[in-house]
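Handout, page 2. Input:
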Amino acid sequence: MNTANFLAAGKTGEYKDGDKKKVTAGGKEIMVARAGGKFYAIANRCPHMGGDLSMGTLTGTMIQCPRHGSQFDITDGHNIRWTSSQGALLTIYKWIKSPRPVKTYKVKIDGDNILIEV
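Output:
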């Protein structure tokens, strides 16, 4: 396996299914999670208002930001819900900053090492 562009981000044994944590790889803050037996890596900061996603709630492959309730699918980064706000406040949030996905990173497992392409 060519791992030239991949950086170490922990060991597989550090995670049970449903676990997540913040790591730093290549100077980037990344959230690594295990869901359904697979490992995923996304940018740790919510693109809405910069919330720490590793402090959010992981349900299956959906992470919810602890700051404003934005939700993202960790498999591909797409936005599920921009904020938990409703009505006029939701309209204002979308006007200030339009919904966008969270960046994802390719993950490889080499033995018991979790490697992230950054």
